[in-house]
Write a structure and sequence with these properties.
Blueprint lengths: L1 H16 L8 E4 L43 H8 L18 E3 L10 H6 L12 H16 L3 H6 L2 E4 L4 H9 L4 H5 L2 H18 L3 E5 L8 H6 L15 H24 L4 E5 L1 H10 L8 E5 L31 E3 L7 H13 L3 E2 L5
Helix pairs in contact: 2-12, 8-10
Length: 360
């Protein structure tokens, strides 16, 4: 009798210490921050630097199309909820009943016609904007839930992004000022909002909506837009005007999420605060179990203060990986390490970097 009571106590403790939530599946949308291989379903193309070694070395032992040394945030989400790692939605022969990932490297929020209107159609190099990703999701739905999709999707977790980074990269890298690019932000936010509403109409209830990263803290931007004016940098060495652009996006996004929560009281729309967590990781990497904030793990080792050279990026000749990626925040100058993504996943699951926390 005492033994059975002890077993019951242990089981109760385990169930309380682990997630109280259960999800049928996870469905993810986004860009290279969350892509799990949609550019590499038939093998990674030779021109794709993120599809070459040492990408994937830490966990998979080979490149998978993920733009890091191992797992990304949604991999940790899947593991936490006892689900298989999300297969890319474009992979043939995969089962999508437990989830699928529509995210693809280079994805934008806005469609090609917008970039054509501002003379940048040549800078958009894949066909996976948000609208298209939602179409991909609708195409796989019959294999996921057949007739009773609304019920199935109401018990699934959706990750909407992040979206916006590539919408801003295209004009920024083509010479547009941050002031000009900031005028595009309301269009981006409206498109994200439209996407959320489409998912809710299909049956989504639990939706995580990440903001954008503090791009002014990434070595790619710090190198391309370096300034001799110290007033352009904040106390952590990040470029103020680029971070202001990110902050503006996130401000409009949180306002839009508030409006959507009022409009859809039955939905649980969670804002994931990429910006503040990553900024704090730059400011105090040790607080997150890391050693280096602005230095790149995989890049041009020893070059400049960031180990970054745009002509010797990770996956290209002239670059090499560090031996200890678990100590780094930044993997390749624009994407984070597996260690950083694990920390971010925990921050979204349990707080304080997701409002409300996924497990809240």
């Amino acid at each position: 009798m005492e033994l059975s009571f002890l077993i019951l106590l242990i089981c109760s403790f385990f169930s309380l210490s682990h997630s109280q939530k259960y999800y049928n599946a996870i469905f993810s949308f986004g860009d290279s921050i969350t892509d799990t291989g949609n550019m590499c379903t038939g093998g990674c193309p030779s021109w794709l630097t993120t599809g070459q070694p040492p990408y994937g070395e830490t966990f998979f032992g080979k490149p998978t199309g993920r733009c890091t040394d191992g797992r990304v945030i949604i991999d940790y989400m899947a593991e936490y909820f006892g689900l298989p790692l999300l297969p890319p939605s474009k992979s043939s022969g995969s089962s999508f009943q437990k989830g699928a990932n529509m995210a693809i490297i280079g994805a934008t929020t806005l469609n090609a016609d917008f970039f054509q209107s501002i003379g940048l159609s040549d800078k958009i190099w894949n066909n996976g904007p948000l609208d298209t990703q939602i179409q991909w999701f609708q195409q796989i739905l019959p294999s996921v839930c057949a007739s009773d999709c609304k019920s199935y999707l109401s018990k699934s977790l959706f990750i909407m992004g992040e979206f916006g980074g590539n919408d801003y990269n295209a004009p920024l890298f083509s010479g547009s000022s941050t002031d000009t690019v900031s005028t595009y932000v309301p269009n981006v936010i409206q498109k994200i909002s439209d996407g959320i509403e489409k998912l809710i109409a299909l049956g989504a209830v639990d939706i995580v909506v990440p903001g954008v990263l503090p791009i002014g803290c990434f070595p790619l931007y710090l190198t391309l837009f370096q300034s001799s004016n110290t007033g352009n940098y904040d106390q952590n060495g990040c470029l103020k005007n680029f971070n202001s652009l990110s902050a503006y996006h996130n401000s409009l996004l949180t306002q839009k999420i508030s409006t959507l929560r009022t409009k859809y009281p039955g939905a649980r729309i969670m804002y994931a605060d990429f910006y503040n967590q990553v900024y704090q990781m730059v400011q105090s990497p040790q607080s997150f179990g890391l050693k280096y904030g602005l230095k790149v793990c995989c890049g041009a080792s020893g070059q400049g203060q960031y180990n970054y050279n745009n002509n010797a990026r990770c996956g290209m000749s002239g670059s090499s990986p560090c031996p200890d990626p678990h100590n780094y925040l930044i993997w390749d100058g624009i994407h984070l390490t597996e260690a950083a993504y694990q920390s971010i996943a925990n921050g979204w699951l349990k707080g304080p970097y997701c409002s409300p926390a996924i497990l809240g």
